[in-house]
Amino acid sequence: MTIHLEKAVSRVDGPLKVTGRALYAGEFGTADLCTGYVVNSSIAKGRILRIDTTEALKVVGVLDVLTHENRPAVASYNESYTDMDAADGKHFRPLYNDRILYSMQPVALVVAESFEAARYAASLVRVDYESEPPQADLYAQRSEAHKAPTELPPDRGDAEEAWTQAPVKVEAEYHSAAEFHNPMEMHASTVIYSTDGKLTIHDKTQGVQNSAQFISNIFGLPDGDVRVVTPFVGGAFGSGLRPQYQLVLATMAALKLKRSVRVVLSREQMFSFGHRPETLQHLKLACDQDGKLVSTIHEVMGETSSFEDFTEMVVVWSASLYQCPNVRLKYDLVPLDLYTPLDMRAPGAVLGVYALESAMDELSYAAGIDPLELRIRNFTATDPASGNNPYSSKELLECYRQGAERFGWNKRSPQPRSMKEGRQLIGYGMATGVWEAMQNPASAKAVITIDGSVVVSSATADIGTGTYTVMTQIAAECFGLPLEKVTFKLGDSTLPKAPLEGGSFTVSSVGSAVKQACEALQQQLLDQAKQDDQSPFKNFELTDVIFENGTMRIKASPQECIEITELLKQGGSPSMEALASASPKEERDNYTTATHSAVFVEVRVDEDFGTVQISRMVSAIAAGRILSLKPGRNQILGGMVWGIGMALQEEGMLDKKLARWMNHNIAEYHYPVNADIHDLDVIFVKEHDEIVNPLGAKGIGEIGIVGVAAAIANAIYHATGKRIRDLPITLDKVFQS
Amino acid sequence: MNATPVRQHRPEAESETHSISLLLNGKQVQLTVEPWTTLLDLLREHLNLTGTKKGCDHGQCGACTVLVNGTRINACLSLAVMQDGAEITTIEGLANGDQLHPMQAAFVEQDAFQCGYCTPGQICSAIGMIKEGKAKTRDEIREQMSGNLCRCGAYTNILAAIEQAMPACQGESRE
C-alpha cells in the first residue's frame, strides 16, 4: 500500500503556474539589466565581408553591437564546445568568425537599454556577404550520403535472399518532413553579472549543469563562477538538451559590458537551430503464409549539417520489436547546409517506428491477416537485437488486448473504404510503440529539519513533465509525510549532479537517487536512535522500521515510536542531511528494458474536402509503475497530440535554393490546436518490474508519441484505400494519391 | 489619443512619450509609455507582471491573452497607448489573495497544463470565452479556445477544466 505513489495528486507547482508566479528564464530581472537582440544571417553559405553597425549604434539606448570582430575572447578548441548531448563533429560557435554555415545563423547581437531599442537597432545592422550556393535538398544530395557514426545491432541471416524467396512481401519508401520543437516559451537567457565577475544565469535548458559547464569551458571561467538557475522551463521537448546560441551571446555581452544582459529569441529565431531531421526510409518486409516475419530490411537516410553528424535511434527498433530471423539495417546521413538536427521527443523512434509500423500494416493486407493479429503473431518475449536477452518486463500483449477492447477493434470491417457515415469515410488503424527504459547515474540530497519537514534536491529539470511533483511524492512516501511537508528543489547547477532531463529517464535516474537519499537519511536517523543504549531501536535495521508523520516506529511493535525532532535534538543539530548517488544495477545488463504501447486510431476523412479528423484514439501503455497519475496521463495525452501533429500538420518548409526555412512562425508551421483534439483515451497497463530500477517505474515522456503517426496513416488507408507514405498527410495528398 | 506608431517615432528620435491611466488588476495606475510599446511589453518589461507570457509576439499563439474591459485580447497586438482608460485584468489579478479563481483552481485540479507557459493565457481566454456566452458544447469550447496554443498538448484537460469552472464563472459574470 502506498500513500502518495501511483495516486492522482495535483501538481505541487500548479498554484505557481496558474497565478503567473512561476518565473521562466527570460523573466528574471535586476536593476542593471539590458537587452540583447540577435541579428541573423540572410544567406546560408559563405562569409561575412563587412558588418556596418554605424546606424544601429546611433539609436538612443543602444550600448553595443557585438560581432565576431569585437566579441570577448572565447575558446578555440572544438572540445570546449562539446556538451552532454553534442553530435559528433565540429560544433557550432556563435560569433566565432566570418564563416556562414546556415541561413539565420547569428551574426551580431545588439545590446540596448530597452527591448524595443535593441530590436529596432538590429534592423539597422548592415551585413555584406560573399555568398556560395547552398545544398539543402535531401533527395538531390543522396549521392553525398555517408554511414552514420553510430553502432547498429548486427545483421541477422540473409535478409535479401529471405525477402526474395518469401511468399508475402512488401517494399515501400516513407518520407517525413523536418519538424521544429517550438516550445511555447522561446529560448531565453538572462545573465546576471555580479561585481566580482561571477555569473548567475537563468537559461532555458533541460540541464542546468550542461549549460554551466558549457559556459565555463567556452569563456575559461572557473566552475564556481558560473551558476545556472532555472526553476521553470516553458516546454522544450529536446530543444533544451544542447545549450543554444542565445546563452553564448548573452554571456558574451555580459562579460564585455560588465552588466546583466537578457537575450530572448523571437519565434522566427526559434527556427534557427535544431529540428527533427527530414528523413527518407526504405522498408522491405516479408512473411510466410501464417504471417510470421521472415525478412526485415530497413534503410534510413537522415539529414545532418555540414559541420556535425547528428545520429538518433532510428533503425534499431526494426531489429528488436518483432521476432524475425533475417534482418538488415542501414543508416546513412546526408550533409546539408542547414543547422544540425536535434533530439526531439522520442528522437529516432518516432521516425523508425513510423516506417516499420506502416510497412507492417501494408504487410497485413498483403497477407490477408488483421493488422493487430499480425503483430501478435510476431510478438517476441526476448530481444532479438541483443542476442535474445529477456525483457525486464514486457506487457505488450496486454496493451494489445486492453487497447483493442477499449477501442472496439472487433467492429472493424477488414476492407479499406468499407466504413462510412454520410460523406465521412471512417478508418481504423493501429500500431505498436516502443522506447528504451534507461537509467543514468544521478545524485540527490535529502535534508530533514527540526520542524519535521524534508527538503530533497537534485540538479534536474521540470520541463512540464511533473518532476517537482513525482519527486515530492517519492520523498513523502519514504518518510510517510503529507506532501506539504516535503519540498523538492531542482534547476540549480549547484545542486547534486543530475543527467539531462530527457529520454524518459528522469524518474528512473533522479527518482532512484531521491529514494536512496531518503533511505540514507533514514539510516542516519536510525543510527542516531541507536546511540542510546536503552533505545528500543537498538537491535533493529532500516527494513524493520517505518517512518510516519514525523515519527520512526518499529514495524513489529508500532507502539515503539520516536519523534524525529527528538532524534535531531539528541544529535544536537537542527537538521540532518544525506547525499546519495544512484547508478543502474549491473543486473540490468542481462535484460532489455523498454516501454511499449499499442495505439488505436479512428479517423474520419471527408470525401469532399479531404480533411482528416482524428475522432478517437486509445493508447495502452506498459511502462512499469506510473508513480504520478495526473502528470503521467498528461504526458501520454501530450504525446498523442504530438503524434497527431506529426501525422497531419507539422512540416518545416524549406526553400531549397536559399536553404532557408520559410514558414518560420506558428501561424504557418502548424501544430494541433484545441479543435483538432477529440476523444483521447489512455490506459496504463499493469507492469511489474524489479529489474529496471528500485522504483519499478520506466519513464513515459516519449512512449506516448511513438507509433501514433503510423496508426493514423494506417487508419487513413483503411478509410480511403489510399496509402500515403509522406508525412504530414495534408489534404492535398489525400486528394492526390 | 494618438495610437498610430508612425515611422518618425523611432527610438533615435526624441522620444515622444504618452501619459495613460489604467485600472490594472483593480488598481488605478498612471503611466508614461512610449508610443511603440505594446501592452504585452508594458506588462512584462516595465511593470514586472511577467505572468502574461510572450510566445510569438505576432498574435499567433494566445499566450499573452489578457482581459481588457472584460474582453479577451492578445496583449502583443495592442499598443499600450491604445488602452488609456481601460480596465485590464491579467493572470496576477484573478485570485483573491490565496483563494484561486474558480478557473485557476480547475486548471490545477484537472492538470490542464504541463510546462505552464501557455496557462495564464488559457485561463484568461477561458474566462473571456465564457463571458462571451457563445460556447455551449464541447466542440464549441474547443473551437473558441483554439486561439490559445498549448505545445505540451494538454487540450483534453484544458477542456475538462473549462467545463468544470464554467458554472462558477457564469455565476460570476452575472453578478
Structural summary, described in words:
- Chain B: Residues 18-94 form the 2Fe-2S ferredoxin-type domain.
- Chain B: GO terms for molecular function: 2 iron, 2 sulfur cluster binding; metal ion binding; oxidoreductase activity, acting on the aldehyde or oxo group of donors.
- Chain B: Pfam families: Fer2, Fer2_2.
- Chain B: It comes from Pseudomonas duriflava.
- Chain B: Keywords: 2Fe-2S, Iron, Iron-sulfur, Metal-binding, Oxidoreductase.
- Chain A: Residues 19-133 form the Aldehyde oxidase/xanthine dehydrogenase a/b hammerhead domain.
- The complex is a heterodimer of chains A (737) and B (175).
- Chain A is of the alpha+beta class.
- Chain A folds into 3 domains: 18-133 and 184-235 and 240-271, Aldehyde oxidase/xanthine dehydrogenase, a/b hammerhead (Aldehyde Oxidoreductase, domain 3), CATH 3.90.1170.50; 279-438 and 589-736, Aldehyde oxidase/xanthine dehydrogenase, molybdopterin binding domain (Aldehyde Oxidoreductase, domain 4, 2-Layer Sandwich), CATH 3.30.365.10; 440-583, Aldehyde Oxidoreductase, domain 4, CATH 3.30.365.
- In chain A, 24% of the residues lie in helices and 26% in strands.
- Chain A contains 16 helices and 34 strands.
- A 7-stranded mixed sheet of chain A has the order 3-6-1-13-10-11-12, with helices on both faces. In chain A, strands 8-17-15-14-9-34 form a 6-stranded mixed sheet, with helices on both faces.
- Chain A is globular and about 80 Å long.
- By secondary structure, chain B is an alpha+beta fold.
- Chain B folds into 2 domains: 18-93, Beta-grasp domain (Ubiquitin-like (UB roll), Roll), CATH 3.10.20.30; 102-174, [2Fe-2S]-binding domain (DNA polymerase, domain 1).
- Chain B has helices spanning 39-46, 102-109, 119-132, 138-144, 155-174, and strands at 18-24, 27-33, 65-68, 71-74, 87-89.
- Chain B has a 5-stranded mixed sheet, with helices on one face.
- Mean pLDDT of chain B is 92; it is low at 1-13.
- At the A-B interface, helix 1, helix 3 and helix 14 of A face helix 1, helix 2, helix 3, helix 4 and helix 5 of B.
